[in-house]
Every structure is written in structure tokens, then in C-alpha cells.
Amino acid sequence: MLSKFVDVYDGFFGAIERATEGWFIGLTARLTFASVLLVYFWNSALTKIGSGISGIFSPTIGAYAQILPGVAESYSYNIDTIPFLPYGLIVFLGTYTEFILPALIVVGLLTRLSALGMVVFIAVMTYVDINFLAADAKTIGAFFDRNPSSLIADQRLLWAFLLIVLVVKGPGFISVDALLGRLVGRAGN
């Protein structure tokens, strides 16, 4: 009786696994990222740039305050006095990371590298939030505390896990990476 149940169980879930192999995990992870985090990161990046076309290339003092709060404060929140190297470069890269990497993940281009970059970005963002933006204990939360609602420990762990799935499994067959791989594969034959 038990072996019959195991056979049915293995047969049913084995069929699901075979039907979804190579496309489902990567596509679902990218769509989940798009629905949960794409707009979050883009809206965050939009708070860091100026208005109009020229504003795209001009991180605001808000960008400095969010990314390098101590530096912004030490220069009295005056962008003109903050040296570009290294501070302006860090702010520029941090700001455009929030635009570029999420877009690459969603379309599935350079997905593994982009997802790894986002994991690092989230780690840096978390470090800044805790050490420089004075996140309180409730916001930080704790692992294994039976309260899954902290904005940092709980949410960002889930974000990182989703991205690590993409690093390990890749974007799947339905992605620009896979399309380029097929094109390159055909060109080499």
C-alpha cells in the first residue's frame, strides 16, 4: 500500500518536474522579481535623479543622502563641494544599478551576473540602512524570531533568496540569455 502511494506521488510530481524543467523556475523567479521588486527599485532610483533629460545624469543630494549619508552631511548637503572621486562615482553607480540590473533581470539578459549584482546591492543597502540611516530594531528584525514582518531581516532575505535562485538556476529557456545562447550555438555549427 505504501509503495503504491510512493509510486503515484513520485509519478505525479516527477511529471510536473519534467514538464517545467529548464523554463519554469527562471521565468517564475524573473516574473516574481518584476512584480515585487522592479518598480520598488526603479522608484527608489527615480528619487535620486534630477528632473528632465539632463536630470538623468545628475544624481541629487537625495541620492547622496540615501547612499552616502555621512558624506552628504559632512559636506553640508552641498553637491558642488562633494568630490566626484570616489563619492560621486559611488552615488552614480548606486543610482544606476537600481535602474539597470532590475531591467536586465526581468528580460533575462546577463541574468546570473545581474542577480549576483543585486544580491551585493541589497547587502550594501542593508548595511547603509542599519549603520547610517539608523534603522530601529523592529525594522531590522531578527532571524527565527517568529515574526515574519521585519523590513530588513525577513524581506531582504526573501529578496536575496529569489535572486540567488537566478544566480544558481539561470533565467530559463524563455529569456534573452537563452535566445543569445541558441543563436551563438547555431553560428558555431
Mean pLDDT: 94
Helix content: over 70%
What is the number of strand segments?
A: 0
- How many angstroms does the end-to-end distance come to? 52 Å
How many helices in DSSP terms? 10
Which overall shape is indicated by the principal axes computed on the Cα atoms? flat
**Percent range for β-strand residues:** under 5%
Structural class: mainly alpha
Describe the structure.
This protein has ten helices and no strands. With 189 residues, the protein is an all-alpha fold. It has one domain (2-188). It is flat, with a radius of gyration of 21 Å.
What descriptive keywords fit this protein?
189 residues; mainly alpha
Detail the topology: elements first, then pairings.
Blueprint: H1 2-20, H2 24-46, H3 52-55, H4 61-67, H5 69-74, H6 84-107, H7 111-131, H8 137-140, H9 153-169, H10 176-188
